[in-house]
Each structure stands twice: as C-alpha cells, then as structure tokens.
Amino acid sequence: MKVKVFTAQTMQEAMGQVKSELGRDAVILHTRRFKKGGLLGFGAKEMVEVMAAIDSVPVAASVEKKTLYPSHSFDSKYQSDYSNKTSELQTEIASMRTMLEQVLYKIPKGDNNNDLLIDLLIKNDVELKIAEDLLKNIPNQVRVSLNQPEVIRELLFERIVNCFQRVEGIDIPIVGSKAVAFIGPTGVGKTTTIAKLAAHFSINKGYKVAMITADTYRISAVEQLKTYSDIIGVPIEIVYSPDELKTALQRHQDKQLVLIDTAGRSPRNHYQLAELQAFLETAPHIETHLVLSATTKYKDALDIVRKFSVCSPHRFLFTKVDEASNIGTIINLIYQFPTSISYITNGQNVPDDIELANPQKLANLILRD
Ligand SMILES: Nc1nc2c(ncn2[C@@H]2O[C@H](COP(=O)(O)OP(=O)(O)O)[C@@H](O)[C@H]2O)c(=O)[nH]1
Ligand SMILES: [Mg+2]
User: Fold this and answer.
1) Which of 124, 181, 192, 215 is the most exposed place for a label (fewest CB within 10 A)?
2) Is 84 domain-assigned?
3) C-alpha of residue 261 to centroid of ligand 2, in Å
4) CA 261 to ligand 1: nearest atom
5) How far is the CA of 164 from the CAs of 28, 161, 332, 338, 356, in angstroms?
6) How many domains is the chain partitioned into structurally?
7) What is the extent of the structural domain holding 258?
8) Whether residues 358 and 248 fall in one domain
9) How far does residue 75's CA lie from ligand 2's centre (Å)?
10) Does any ligand 1 atom lie closer than 6 A to the CB of residue 124?
11) pLDDT, tens digit, 9 for 90 and up, residues 307-318
C-alpha cells in the first residue's frame, strides 16, 4: 500500500493532486485544515491536508486515459462505437428520467394541490390517466409555486376547455340541402333530439325542414315522431329500405334541412349495425351524429363508439346531461376520440332542452365539486 499526504490551498486542488498521482481508486484516509505562515497567528494562510492511500500504484491517470481511448481511438470504428455508446446512454438516461418523474408523481404529496385536483377529477369519473395527463407539467408551465391553487385550477380549466374546442352544430348551406342522421343505442334520446332540432330550425330560424324516420322497428317510434311532426308543422316520411331513403331524400331536395331518425341499435348486434351502415351509405352526403347519453358508464360508451365507428359518425351529440351525476364519460370519450361535439341536451322538454355544446360550461361541469 502506498500512503501519501497532499497539501494545497483548497480541497479541490488537493483532490486533483490525489487523483493525478494515485488515480481514481485512491482512498482518502484523513483530511484537515491548518494555518500556515503569518506572524503570531496574523496573516496566516488556510491550507488543506489530505492523506490518501492506494493498494498498489495504479497506472497514472494519463496512461489510464490512453488505455480507454487509445491514440487510434478516433479512427472510424472507434468513433462509431463511441457515438453508439453515447446515444445508448442518452436513451437510457431519458427513460430513467421518465421513470423517475412517474414515480415522483405517484408519491403522495400530502395536501399538494395537484392531488386535490386529481381527486376532484376522479370524483367526476375522469379516468386516472387522463386526469394525470391534464395536470401534467402545469406547475412548471408557469413556474408557479404549488401554493397557488387558484392559478393551477384556472390552468386546468383552460386545458379542459381546449379538449372541448371542437364544436360543430348543424350548419345549413346557403344553397342546397343538408341531411343529418342520428344514430345510437336505443333510448338515448335520438327522436326527442330530432324533434327539438326540427322545432329550432323551422320555428326559430325559419328554415324549410323535413323529417324522415327509418325507425320502423316499433310502431310507437313512428307515432312518436308523427306527433312531433303535427305539433311542429314539418312533414315526415317513413322509409323501410335504403332505396326508399334515397327516394325520400330526392323528394325533399327543396328542404334546407332533412333530419333522419334511425332505429336504436345494440352495439353488440353486428347485423343491425351493418343494416344501419347500408342505410347511411345510400347518400354519401348524409352527416351523421352519434347520440350518446351522458349517463352511460365510460366503458360502455367506449364500446358503443367503437362499434358504431363502422358508420363513421361525424359528430358526437350528448343527451341527458341533466340526469348525469357527472360528465366524466364525455371528457374521457373526447380525449380518446377527438371528435367534434354538436349539441348537448339537458331535459325532456321539446324544443327548449337543447343547446350547442359550450366548452366553458362543459369544463365547469368537469370541475364541479
Ligand atoms: N332527462 C332527459 N331525458 C331525455 C333527454 N332526451 C331524451 N330524454 C328522454 O329519454 C327517453 C327516450 O327518448 P327517445 O327520444 O325516445 O330515445 P331514442 O330511442 O333514442 O329515440 C324519453 O323519455 C325522452 O323524453 C334529455 O336530454 N334529458
Ligand atoms: Mg327513437
């Protein structure tokens, strides 16, 4: 074993000496500070002493360096090995950082406001992953301290509003006709919504409107729409096949808006869905709104959206927001399938209980205490 004492003005300098003489494996046995020079204790310089040892004299640091990166180390082979290693290391560091961030995020942080907001989102049935995603990086984003709950809540609100930014109601063309079909499971409110829209566009807006129903599955369904047709004063057609739908659409070419009701379909019945798809394919210009109830559990709603995707819906329309204890399902779906929302219905009253989706109102409902 070789033991040596090094003195220098700073600890850093002394360590540098240890490293260059004894190498990286040297063991520090002892350090001390002492005063040197001066007169009667005045003007003395502070010095550092380091006692270090090494088992056997190592190859000097400079030689060690040479072994690791020999003089020919920057020929092309070594250079590419070296850069491969560097990029591997960078990838590894990046994935370690992500892991660390995730772990840190999950550590309970007492009364951390993010946790309180996550709890609030989860209480409103927002999926955990989505809640975490919405809150991710918010504090860093504005460099606010975590004790500013109202700032963080405001930022979260804006993020949620952004999720609902895509709002597209029924846009009536200046020239020509628009046909809109409403599809979805049974009982979600398709027929009631059509009646609300027929009244809104014909009575409030003064457009020429017609209704067509392809829901001939139940007599009562046809009668329901016929009653609305009488009250609102818009014509109604009943069609039993895709061909009849085509003819009916041609007959109503003079109308600015044709609203098409369809039979409620079970997302589990492939035959029913294929039949519906065939109806919609008769006229390629039909705009399709998938009607979903806000009271549906997210997992079921996910299944419905997946199954109805064969009909390529252009918009989501959410009903029964008045009955839902929260609207987690709506944000979860929009997050998963970024699709425009057309209308929100919030009651049984025809024609009043319907409105164009409002991102601010929806965001407020998501953050409801
Ligand atoms: N609370 C509430 N009930 C609604 C809403 N929309 C429709 N309904 C009711 O839901 C039930 C089924 O509606 P309907 O239009 O026949 O559904 P469809 O089978 O999809 O055509 C009816 O009792 C409607 O009054 C809504 O926004 N809120
Ligand atoms: Mg119906």
Assistant:
1) 124
2) no
3) 7
4) 21
5) 62, 5, 11, 9, 12
6) 3
7) 178-366
8) yes
9) 76
10) no
11) 999 999 999 999
